[in-house]
Design goal:
Among the domains are: about 60 residues, no CATH class; about 100 residues, no CATH class. About 55% of the residues lie in helices and about 0% in strands. Strands 1-2 form a two-stranded antiparallel ribbon. The longest helix is centred in the C-terminal third of the chain and has 105 residues. Pfam families: DUF3716 (PF12511). InterPro entries: DUF3716.
Amino acid sequence: MSNLSDLPPFLHLAPPLLSPRLPLLLLSYVLTHSRLHLAPLLSPRLPLLLRSYVPSICNHLSSMDSQGVPPPPYQQNTPVIPQLNVQDPPHLVLGQPETLPPIPVGTDLLPAGPHFKTPLLETISQKTFRWEPLLRLQYAVALRAVSFHAQIGASVARVEATTIQIVGTPETSLCTVCLSNKGPFSHCTRDPATRRCGNCHWLGRSCSLDPDPNATSSTRRRMHRVSREDLASAADELESLLKQRGSLRTCLRGIVSKLHEDQGAVRRAIQSNAATHQAIAAQSFAQAHQVLGIQATDIECLGNKIEELRREQESIINLLTETDPR
């Protein structure tokens, strides 16, 4: 309570300040209208709190005219809060009409993902962007944008359903699924290429607005058929890989066996070569020893001959000495 305008109307007719009822009136007003908490009012600061109201009341009493009539009470303009509308918001057109880029094909850094390989998505993704895919209130409150984007990428059918909401046409009469508030999208939007709304396509159900529901197979049945085809192809590929592995194992066994045979032949050749080298070495040693023995014999004979010649020389010298008288 910051100014005189916040005073209640009954204080305009309050008795004089010296009246014993004034503290009771102020206390009653504080307990019922003031924004102060109750705990400070029960504290020893209560007289100070009451004293803070006295200058405002004095100013109010001094503003009375000569007849003692107080000024009219202050009429505060209370803002009117509009009622909230909890209905789903209408469609909003964001910017200029655009067309989606072409489906990525070819052998670039990454191959085209499975979401871009369905004929339905290839057809409807070439159409013009028309709407923002708005969610129902329960989905918008419970999910964040990142969570909902993760749910969209969980299957091909959900990507197709979201694309239907972007390029399709809103229906004036809702189908039974949309009337039951089922599905994530707030509007019943269909496209001629699908003949089902985005919510029915998301849930994999037939749409009541489809004139020939038997012609449009359900998303679950289509997904199961695709899954079986994928499994059959994967089984054939696995069988082919197993056969290739068996042939590779047979070839590997032959290579290992031949390698063992070659190792044995090399080992035997090494052993034979070692024996040959030993024999050659022994024979060479014997021959060398024999040659050396022959040479030693010859040297010994020569030494004997030299010794005989030396003795003969000595005998001749002695003989000459004996015959010469001088």
